[in-house]
Design goal:
- The chain is of the alpha+beta class and 165 residues long.
- It has one domain.
- It has three helices and four strands; from the N terminus they run ααββββα.
- The strands form two sheets. It has a two-stranded antiparallel sheet.
- Strand 3 and strand 4 form a beta hairpin.
- The longest helix has 32 residues.
- The radius of gyration is 38 Å and the shape is rod-shaped.
- It starts with a helix and ends with a helix.
Length: 165
């Protein structure tokens, strides 16, 4: 029986679970990055018209990204696989023997009733838990620099708007 318990534990496809977790995280990370890039493009393409400071009858369009709206970027920081397995085995044996004999004149007769039963109970319970932690991270450095330069440029244009004509 001890060998079968050990074999059950060895049969847990741990390497396969770790591989699938790693590939799943890589795929999810790609999706997150793709989404962040789409949001950055949306923020660059979406413009808000605001009245000019010099001439309120005129409007100036500002891309969302130039107003300081930054897309969110996320990264998986921790991944945990937890596998729990409980293996229970129980055996019970029941034996009973009964004998009866008749004696007297004539042939001797005897009867024996024997019963033997063996019960074997085998139960396996398992559960697994997959936990990942996601954390916000700054945008890629070049995108960060671009956004900051764009915000500065728009800020300079607003400052020019304030100057008296």
């Amino acid at each position: 029986m001890g060998n079968s318990v050990g074999q059950e534990l060895l049969n847990v496809p741990f390497a396969e679970m770790v591989t699938k977790l790693g590939l799943g995280i890589a795929s999810a990370q790609t999706e997150l990055d793709t989404n962040s890039a789409k949001v950055a493009k949306f923020m660059a393409d979406t413009k808000i018209p605001l009245p000019s400071i010099k001439d309120p009858t005129k409007t100036i369009e500002f891309p969302l990204i130039s107003m300081g709206f930054f897309p969110g970027f996320y990264q998986f920081t921790e991944s945990i696989i937890e596998v729990k397995m409980a293996i229970t085995m129980a055996t019970s044996t029941e034996k009973s023997v009964s004998a009866s004999a008749k004696a007297g004149w004539g042939p001797f007769s005897a009867s024996v009733n024997a019963s033997y039963s063996s019960k074997y109970d085998y139960k396996v319970e398992g559960s697994s838990l997959l936990r990942v932690r996601l954390a916000p991270v700054p945008p890629p450095a070049i995108l960060q620099e671009y956004m900051e330069a764009l915000v500065q440029k728009m800020s300079d244009e607003i400052s020019k708007e304030k100057e008296p004509a």
